[in-house]
Write a structure and sequence with these properties.
Strand order of the largest sheet of chain A: 1-29-30-31-32-2
Chains: A alpha+beta (about 600), B mainly alpha (about 425), C alpha+beta (about 190)
Number of domains of chain A: 2
Largest interface: A-B, 70 and 81 residues
Shape of chain B: globular
Radius of gyration of chain B: 28 Å
Distance between the termini of chain B: 82 Å
Strand content of chain A: 25-35%
Structural class of chain A: alpha+beta
Strand order of the largest sheet of chain B: 1-2
CATH class of the largest domain in chain A: Mainly Beta
Strand content of chain B: under 5%
CATH superfamily of the largest domain in chain A: YVTN repeat-like/Quinoprotein amine dehydrogenase
Number of helices of chain A: 5
Radius of gyration of chain A: 38 Å
Order of helices and strands of chain B: HHHHHHHHHHHHHEHHHHHEH
Number of domains of chain B: 2
Number of strands of chain A: 35
Oligomer: heterotrimer
Largest sheet of chain B: 2 strands, antiparallel
Largest sheet of chain A: 6 strands, mixed
Helix content of chain B: 55-70%
Structural class of chain B: mainly alpha
Helix content of chain A: 25-40%
CATH topology of the largest domain in chain A: Methylamine Dehydrogenase, Chain H
CATH architecture of the largest domain in chain A: 7 Propeller
Chain lengths: ~600, ~425, ~190
């Protein structure tokens, strides 16, 4: 082989390798196209999946809600089924697409890398010296610049740290460390008393005693003519539960045997802000007779953070003020022939549930418990040897501490709200205990038909039946309506319309007045004491406004023209009355 | 004695069960038809011995890498090792476990967070460092899947100026410090959380992760191994140790002939040029600077430590317990009226707010220390880097900077002496 | 020339010194591991079902799609209810398997009649996406026999588990692989 031949062969070989560069580049281009196409398809699928996946099908949720309203509508069901099928089909299709697509992209990318690298290698020039180096000054100049670079980076990092340091450290003050090195406790402040007083947070108001802060409340209104009626709104589901008011919101419950709902109305306009269902559909076997308390007798309670609702099915739920369900749980179906009617109350972020059930006192079914308002978890639970009862407990101040007072059959008991420990008990109740206890002038008053009106001093310990009962009185005892007192006088109301005023000091009757003297009057809602007036709504929806004095005196009347069994709420000059069908806001116009 | 203990346990269990009401709401039925309840099926755990296989593969790959770089001097071999590691540690083992992420585990365990470091993870952390003391960054060269995925996509390397390289290089050290701090206080493992490539290995990741990874890969087509050079915290550790490595990558197999052909062979800017003889006057100047930099070092460390301490609050706010404590505080004080899943879950634990605050305060205390140390570290890095840049070393011939060199063996083929060697080798073979 | 040699040997000495120190430090890391090791081997991520608050985080934040978290049913705890609050919508139209009545968005919970009023509920893991809707229904209103667990065959054991980072109740932690599942054996209320 001559030298010429060798050179010729070498160039030939070189050309041959170079010739491979083009196809390699071409292969690379194809691979790019392939990868981009697959990535685009996957990206599209990803975006679609993000928008619509089995977890985010608002349309199905909406249709399901509609279906609840129109249970018989087969079209809605058909649409749900179709939509559900489609969404699931797409979801699983996309999932398999993502899996296969991933591998395809990987293979495509591998081809791409190999192709491009091959092409680059084949067309690469020889190794060359750095064209930018002029040897004289590069070294020291580069070193100087590098130093400045590092200094600059140092400044950047310092700047970041300073920016961090100057940003608000905590959204909140740092938890204080006290002098002895212990963490200053962030107190679980209960909502201040004056805030409570501004609102109507539970059945019978801030204290649960039917006493409202004095205010400018009208003494006459008429739903027929619209006089002093600020607004009126239809409530979807009926119930005997009372309205509860917190700032600009009015809460109410309604139920049928099938479903239970909590409503939030705008206090200014009456428009429905939200409604939420509680518990699963179906009554869980609850069936109530005609004389029962209905399917929504329990008034909601709020602690200013959340609103808590309970129903005779034993379902309890908490909602935040936006209507979002915070928790929901079932306490089990209460054994109660009229239905469980006891309303919820709150104490320092806890929900107090008195659950007296069963026909015997010692069956171990009855208890009182505190649920954590934020989670619904049981904080404490105390067994009660009681038969079923229907009264709502109250929280009272005794000296510097507080007590929960629960009326029941046959005991009235004071509990420590911290841990549910029993403090005192008085055996004085008979029959089906329904009127709720009240507290006025340092005294607890309980009453019930077949029992007595009893005044109890709540500062005892143990069984104080013999020592702490101040007096008893046994005339005109109510079977449903709770009493009300200003500390000087106590008023009791029989369902038949007989009003009795008793002296709180000694239990002597001051006067009695039959409201049903002329026309038949029946009363089931409990009265409210506002300043020196008593507001008492009868079954026909007529509010009797009486003077809270030692003599009977009727000041005015207002009518809503429909049946009323719920106790009204009094907040800021406005009275919220629940009728059989509507919720009214009464106030001076 | 044992009997007694059992009795005690049983009784307390019973009491406990009674106390929390451990009752089923709906008792399980007795099937009249004799229906057998199925057993709840769970998938078995992945074979525990696999981690030891991984350790074995790691050791093998490191040894092969060292041999390929120093013994065989084969770029092709390193490339295939890289492909193997990409497939095995990357796509097959899905990027876990890896030494880069192991930094977090080591710091977590060292911070005393009640986390026992598994042996395999400890070995994954230690072995590449150990190798770097003798063979430089062979781990980066062919064993690291994160490095491999960037290396294989390198297409048209851009040579970035040395000063930019030095400047951005500081970031990796800062990131290392940050990662160690967050893991050390027991808060989170940020290296793993923000690993840009693991999503590719798993073929499944949240969009932002894939996006970040894609950005790094695209940049790495031009700026070789972007993550390795400017971000990788393990790379930072390897850099520090490689400086003292027993053997160093040598571009030329024998003596440098100063042909300048390798000047552009390194896509990672790790080739150092021979130095010129300096004039006498300039050397003094350098000494003055050096003295100043050394004096400044403690000041820098102190100042940065102070700044770190001051930023402790914001750094701590990433911590979940701190966030929870703040949230609960807001709820307790009526700043917000709703509850979040997190605060609701906290209340479900039965822990008191006081306990939570105690805990949060403890974490804040740890962050105060951690942030100061982190700040000091950043100051130390900046100061040391300055000192290193002031010190001038005399270099004859072209050498690979032991810190920056990832031992990829690309430069070998640029050296005519190497070609000579290979020719001879071929002759020998022939 | 002599000076340069001295320089080089000084550097070698420094290198050897630092290498020695580094070796000691690395050995120290291993030593510390040996010293602090407790009696457990491999650890895996798992959910404590008693801490779980059945939000949807497991379905949404796992690095895998679908999530490695799946629902399980422990049958001895199950009430075999006809009205399963884990299976049916809160306001189910009828107690049938029609789509509009089902809670599960992917139809992964299967309902099978056994006898009388009793029905068996079985989770099909391939369809389950770990959204915990059934778990919520079952735990709030039923026996709580449905609960979430991380499928150890699917989980890639990320060093920083993405779900654990997002879990509001810190219910996910590393547990020994020897006992890799926490199966429920009773309902805990409160």
């Amino acid at each position: 082989m001559t030298e010429q031949q060798v050179v010729h062969l070498e160039t030939q070989a070189e050309n041959a390798t170079r010739a491979w560069a083009r196809p390699a580049r071409l292969a690379g281009l194809v691979a790019v196209g392939f990868v981009v196409a697959v990535v685009l398809i996957m990206g599209d699928s990803y975006v679609r999946e993000r928008r619509l996946n089995p977890l985010t099908v608002g349309e199905i949720d909406g249709l399901k809600k509609e279906m609840v309203k129109q249970p018989g509508d087969e079209k809605i069901k058909e649409r749900i089924r179709r939509l559900d099928m489609e969404v699931r089909h797409r979801h699983f299709y996309r999932r398999s697409l993502a899996m296969r697509g991933g591998w395809l992209v990987l293979v495509g990318a591998a081809v791409l890398v190999v192709a491009l690298k091959t092409s680059a290698k084949l067309t690469a020039g020889p190794y060359m010296p750095d064209p930018n180096v002029s040897f004289r000054n590069t070294q020291s100049r580069m070193a100087t610049m590098a130093r400045w670079g590092v200094v600059g980076m140092g400044f950047v990092l310092a700047g970041v740290l300073i920016a961090f340091a100057s940003m608000p450290r905590f959204r909140l003050p740092e938890f204080g460390v006290t002098a002895n090195g212990e963490v200053g406790a962030v107190k679980e402040e209960a909502v201040a008393a004056e805030v409570l007083a501004r609102n109507w947070p539970a059945f019978r108001g801030p204290m649960g005693t039917g006493v409202a802060a004095a205010g400018d409340y009208p003494t006459d209104w008429d739903a027929a003519s619209g006089k002093n009626v600020i607004w009126k709104v239809k409530v979807e589901l009926g119930g005997y539960s009372s309205p509860v008011v917190w700032e600009d919101k009015v809460f109410l419950t309604g139920a049928t045997q099938e479903k239970r709902e909590v409503y939030c109305f705008d206090a200014a306009t009456g428009s429905l802000r939200w409604k939420q269902a509680v518990g699963p559909a179906g009554g869980g076997g609850l069936e109530l007779g005609e004389d029962g308390g209905g399917y929504a007798p329990n008034t909601v309670a709020t602690d200013g953070r959340r609103v808590y609702a309970m129903f005779p099915t034993g379902d309890v739920a908490a909602f935040d003020f936006g209507g979002k369900k915070v928790w929901g749980k079932s306490l089990g179906l209460p054994k109660n022939s009229y239905g469980h009617t006891t309303s919820l109350i709150t104490w320092r972020g806890r929900v107090i549930v008195q659950m007296d059930q069963g026909n015997t006192a010692k069956d171990g079914n009855s208890s009182v418990m505190a649920l954590d308002g934020a989670t619904g978890n049981v904080v404490w639970q105390t067994q009660r040897e009681m038969m079923a009862s229907w009264a709502t407990p109250i929280v009272i101040p005794v000296g510097s501490v507080q007590q929960i007072v629960c009326d029941g059959m046959p005991f009235v008991v004071g509990y420590d709200p911290e841990n549910g420990k029993e403090i005192w008990r008085v055996k004085c109740m008979e029959g089906e205990v329904t009127p709720s206890p009240i507290f006025a002038g340092g005294m607890v008053f309980v009453c019930n038909e077949r029992a007595e009106l009893v005044a109890i001093k709540p500062d005892g310990k143990g069984d104080v039946t013999a020592s702490h009962v101040a007096w008893k009185m046994e005339e005109n005892l109510p079977n449903i309506v709770s009493p009300v007192s200003n500390g000087e006088l106590v008023w009791m109301m029989m369902t038949s319309g007989m009003l009795t005023c008793v002296d709180a000091k000694d239990g002597q009757k001051v006067y009695e007045k039959d409201l049903a003297e002329k026309d038949p009057v029946e009363v089931k809602a409990s009265p409210v004491l506002v300043g020196n007036r008593i507001y008492l709504v009868d079954l026909k929806g007529v509010m009797h406004i009486l003077e809270a004095g030692r003599e009977f005196k009727e000041i005015g009347k207002g009518a809503v023209g429909e049946e009323c069994q719920a106790s009204p709420a009094f907040v800021g000059g406005k009275i919220y009355i629940r009728g059989a069908e509507h919720l009214y806001c009464i106030g001076r116009k | 004695m044992r009997m007694l203990r059992w009795v005690v346990i049983m009784v307390s269990l019973l009491l406990w069960a009674g106390a929390v009401g451990a009752v089923e709401r709906f008792p399980a039925p007795d099937f009249r038809s004799g229906h057998q309840m199925p057993k709840t099926e769970v998938s078995p755990v992945v074979w525990a011995g696999r981690q030891w296989v991984d350790v074995g593969v790691l050791v093998g790959a490191l040894a092969v890498g060292a041999w390929l770089v120093f013994g065989k001097r084969s770029r092709r071999g390193v490339l295939w090792l890289m492909v193997f590691s990409l497939v095995y540690f990357g796509f097959y083992r899905k990027g876990c476990i890896c030494p880069v992420g192991a930094i977090g585990n080591v710091a977590l365990s060292a911070g005393g967070n009640g986390y026992a470091l598994p042996w395999a993870v400890a070995l994954f952390f230690v072995l590449p460092l150990l190798f770097s003391l003798f063979y430089g960054r062979v781990f980066c060269a062919g064993v690291c899947a994160l490095g491999a995925i960037q290396d294989v996509v390198l297409l048209k390397p851009i040579h970035i100026p040395a000063w930019v390289e030095q400047m951005l290089g500081v970031f990796a050290y800062a990131y290392l410090g940050l990662a160690v701090m967050y893991a050390g206080v027991g808060s989170e493992l940020i290296i793993c959380r923000y690993d840009p490539f693991v999503g590719f290995f798993r073929l499944s990741a949240p969009a932002h992760m894939l996006f970040l990874g894609a950005v790094f890969l695209v940049i790495s087509m031009y700026v070789g191994r972007t993550y390795c050079r400017f971000v990788c915290p393990y790379g930072a550790l390897l850099r520090m140790l490689s400086v003292f490595s027993k053997r160093r990558v040598s571009i030329t197999p024998k003596d440098c002939v100063d042909c300048r052909l390798c000047e552009q062979a390194c896509p990672f800017g790790a080739i150092r040029y021979p130095t010129q003889k300096e004039k006498a006057g300039r050397k003094d100047n350098g000494k003055g600077q050096l003295v100043m930099a050394i004096v400044m070092l403690p000041v820098l460390v102190g100042v940065f430590a102070g700044m770190g301490y001051m930023s402790r609050g914001l750094l701590a706010r990433r911590d979940l317990t701190i966030q929870l404590a703040e949230r609960v505080w807001q709820e307790e004080h009526g700043v917000v009226t709703d509850v979040t899943d997190v605060s609701r879950a906290f209340r479900g634990t039965g822990q008191t707010v006081d306990q939570l605050n105690q805990q949060a305060n403890g974490i804040r205390h740890r962050f105060a220390i951690g942030a100061s140390v982190f700040g000091a570290w950043v100051g130390l890095v900046v100061g040391s880097k300055l000192i290193a840049l002031i010190i001038r070393r005399q270099r004859t011939g072209y050498t690979a900077d032991p810190a920056g060199c990832v031992a990829c063996a690309r430069c070998y083929l640029s050296c005519p002496v190497e070609h000579d060697r290979l020719g001879q080798q071929e002759l020998v073979v022939a | 020339m002599a000076e340069q040699n001295a320089d080089i040997s000084r550097r070698d000495l420094l290198g050897t010194g630092v290498r020695g120190v580094s070796l000691l430090a690395l050995g120290g890391v291993l030593g510390a591991v040996a010293a602090t090791r407790q009696a457990h081997g491999k650890m895996v991520w798992q959910i404590d079902p008693y801490k779980c608050i059945y939000c949807e985080v497991c379905a949404k934040t796992c690095v895998l799609n679908p999530s490695a978290v799946k629902c399980l049913n422990v049958f001895p705890l199950c009430g075999y209810c006809k009205l399963c609050t884990g299976y049916f919508e809160a306001e189910a139209n009828e107690l049938t398997t029609a789509a509009e009545n089902q809670l599960c968005p992917t139809g992964a919970l299967k309902r099978k009649w056994v006898e009388d009023e009793y029905f068996e509920y079985v989770v099909e893991a391939g369809l389950c996406i770990g959204c915990a809707r059934c778990v919520k229904g079952c735990t709030d209103y039923g026996n709580g026999s449905l609960f979430l667990q991380i499928d150890q065959q699917l989980c890639v054991q990320c060093n920083q588990c993405s779900i654990a980072t997002n879990c509001p109740s810190q219910a996910i932690s590393r547990i020994p692989a020897k006992q890799a599942y926490i199966l429920k054996d009773k309902l805990r209320i409160g």
